[in-house]
Structure formats: C-alpha cells, structure tokens
Design a protein that fits this description.
The protein has helices spanning about 5-15, 20-30, 35-45, 45-60, 80-110, and strands at about 35, 65-70, 70-75. By secondary structure, it is α+β, with helices and mostly antiparallel strands. The chain has one domain: Winged helix-like DNA-binding domain superfamily/Winged helix DNA-binding domain (Arc Repressor Mutant, subunit A, Orthogonal Bundle), CATH 1.10.10. The longest helix has about 30 residues, at about 80-110. The termini are far apart.
Length: about 110
C-alpha cells in the first residue's frame, strides 16, 4: 500500500469489513484463537465461502493463521481489531438511539383522525 493516500487505505479497510461473514469471524475471534472447524459450525456457511472470507481478512492483515497439526487456527492480528468492532457497536447504538427518539417524537405528534 505504499504511495496510497491514507483516506484510500481507510476506505479499503472499511470495504474489507463490509461483509457479514467477515464481521462475524472477527467477532468470534475476539474471544481468542479459533480453529476453522469451530468457525464453520458457529457461522454456518459453506466451507469454500468461509475459506474465501478468511483469505480476504488475512490479506488485509486483520487476522493471522497458524497450524496445529492438521488444524488451521485463526486469531486477530491485533487487539485493535476488537476495539474497532467495539467502536462500531457504539456508533450503531448511538445512531439507533437517535432513531428511537425520533420515532417516539413522531408517534407523539400524530393526532388521531
């Protein structure tokens, strides 16, 4: 990514995060390293789909993998990934709270016919 403006690098990071399976993998890895078989059973997608999503996360530097015999184990590449997910959750909670307030205000302002 040399000679790439920071805003472009950030956009690529967020594009990488823009898939529900990838987000779910990262959420599961927050609790520690997980073998692929556990990820498969917890996420419930085809093995080829999970493999593709893990490869994308690995290329982006968000996860790393290691072998334990025949088992491939994935882990978050940095604890900052977990922080990013936490802040994403906080932003969503803030956005949804505002929507709930607006909805309550709208409901309160509707006069019966």
């Amino acid at each position: 990514m040399s000679n790439v403006p920071l805003y472009q690098a950030k956009a690529e990071l967020f594009r990488t995060l823009g898939h529900p399976v990838r987000i779910r993998v990262l959420e599961l890895l927050q609790d520690g390293p997980r073998p692929v078989r556990e990820l498969l059973s917890d996420i419930g997608v085809e093995a080829s789909n999970l493999s593709q999503q893990l490869a994308i996360l690995r290329r982006a530097g968000l996860v790393s993998s290691s072998r334990d015999g025949a088992t491939v184990v994935y882990t978050l590449a940095t604890p900052d990934v977990a922080l990013l997910l936490l802040y994403g959750r906080r932003i969503l909670a803030s956005m949804w709270t505002g929507q709930e307030d607006l909805l309550a205000e709208l409901r309160g302002s509707v006069e019966p016919l």
